[in-house]
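For reproducibility, we list the full input for the iron/sulfur cluster complex.
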Amino acid sequence: MTAEEQWRIELDSAVCVGSGLCAGTAPTCFTLDTAGRATAPESPVPASPELLDAAENCPAAAITLRTAEEGKEIFAP
Ligand code: SF4
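The corresponding predicted structure, in tokenized form, follows.
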């Protein structure tokens, strides 16, 4: 992970259980909508250990991360 690296977040809202863990771990990347489901930006975000933590620890395995440019898998549940 470099300082300039950008990742794209793929969030499967159909399986999200609204635990809020991702928003607590990486609040700049995830928010909970009014229905209690997580949302994430469609545009790429800066790579960070917090974002990787959020993806790895999502209890619903709803978060996939890819590099923004090449689409290379960083984390898939
Ligand atoms: S951690 Fe996973 S299940 Fe919990 S709100 Fe985020 S995406 Fe949904």
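The chain has two helices and six strands. The mean pLDDT is 96. Both points were considered when choosing residues for closer inspection.
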